[in-house]
Structure to design on (342 residues):
């Protein structure tokens, strides 16, 4: 996870990255610092979140340099500027635009606090697909999400021709402006079971099938915080992309000095109690899928399964905890339904 800057042209309610003071938001990594981090860490894939990477004046140089190093680059963007800037990039099997799109029009516009944001992002996605780029919409879901709307969103995205869908529950950032819509683990499982059971054949996911089973409550995993190491203007972040318990100057120092055993759901660390986010748990799923035969077989099976589940169908008919409708409903959280380490 390479964060070359934290400034953004949106201010989403669930974002924990753009609340830094102006002098931090002005800072950015140089292309050389980005290349050095990617080489030092050695990961085959480099996701570039932020902030909004397209606001970095040298983002094209950074992306091209990583592609030249044969890194699989997932450049995250809210796509407000994607269509206008598309001609500066070159389609490659190493480059994917990971477009922040939190569901259908009303859901997305509400989540990113910008009316019209969905239409601009979808225009950007269509233009990128047409130009031959790999594109994956990337959705984060919060409490009150309507699973029927998410399933309709999958239909719409696949019809546009995206390569696959990426999704994750939100992390309860202390700094995020909206603190009322982060979910506990039981609610995450219930929501994702409703969304991901009884899949359509047309849906493709750009994620580990075992991670999706984890979200649906079919698997129990602990976190692998070092599975998605994060580098930013502050250095190598301890212990993971989400938490900031210090920084190290080098990747080696981060790996050797972070007490990883103090993180993850089994550790009892309250900061991790409700986290089921892909940056920590998808690496565990990948290790499981490639680390043993039963895991490998489950991964292959999961790739082709439609996860038929009549109980999950009933969940689609049930009212959402905070009322129904296309919007995430702002209001007092239902404390009776709050839960943590379930
Ligand atoms: S687009 Fe991304 S970086 Fe920008 S405010 Fe929204 S969540 Fe944060
Ligand atoms: S459980 Fe979540 S917050 Fe805790 S270390 Fe893992 S990824 Fe980070």
């Amino acid at each position: 996870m390479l964060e070359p800057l934290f400034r953004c042209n949106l201010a989403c309610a669930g974002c924990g990255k753009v609340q830094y003071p102006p002098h931090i938001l002005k800072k950015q990594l140089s292309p050389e610092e980005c290349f050095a981090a990617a080489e030092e860490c050695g990961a085959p894939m480099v996701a570039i979140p932020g902030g909004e990477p397209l606001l970095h004046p040298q983002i094209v140089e950074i992306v091209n340099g990583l592609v030249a190093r044969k890194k699989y680059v997932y450049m995250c963007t809210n796509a407000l500027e994607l269509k206008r800037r598309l001609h500066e990039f070159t389609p490659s099997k190493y480059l994917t635009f990971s477009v922040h799109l939190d569901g259908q029009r009303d859901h997305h516009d509400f989540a990113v606090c910008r009316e019209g944001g969905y239409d601009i992002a979808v225009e950007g996605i269509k233009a990128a697909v047409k130009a031959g780029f790999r594109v994956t919409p990337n959705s984060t879901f919060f409490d009150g999400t309507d699973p029927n709307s998410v399933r309709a969103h999958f239909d719409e995205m696949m019809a546009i021709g995206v390569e696959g869908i990426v999704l994750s529950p939100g992390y309860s950032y202390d700094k995020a402006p909206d603190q009322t819509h982060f979910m506990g683990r039981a609610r995450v499982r219930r929501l994702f079971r409703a969304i991901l059971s009884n899949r359509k054949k047309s849906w493709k996911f750009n994620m580990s099938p075992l991670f999706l089973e984890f979200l649906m409550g079919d698997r129990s995993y602990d976190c692998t915080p070092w599975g998605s190491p994060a580098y930013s203007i502050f250095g190598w972040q301890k212990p993971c992309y989400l938490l900031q318990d210090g920084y190290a100057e080098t990747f080696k120092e981060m790996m050797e000095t972070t007490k990883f055993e103090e993180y993850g759901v089994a550790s009892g660390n309250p900061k991790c109690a409700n986290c089921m986010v892909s940056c920590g748990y998808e690496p565990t799923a990948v290790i499981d899928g490639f680390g043993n035969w039963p895991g490998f077989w489950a991964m292959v099976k999961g790739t082709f399964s439609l996860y038929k589940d009549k109980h999950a169908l009933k969940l689609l008919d049930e009212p959402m905890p905070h009322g129904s409708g296309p919007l995430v409903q702002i209001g007092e959280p239902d404390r009776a339904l709050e839960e943590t380490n379930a």
User: Anything to note?
Assistant: Residues 125 and 135 are 7 Å apart (CA to CA). Residues 323-342 have pLDDT under 50 and may be disordered. The domain at 17-340 is CATH 3.80.30.10 (pyruvate-formate lyase- activating enzyme). The chain is about 35% helix and 10% strand.
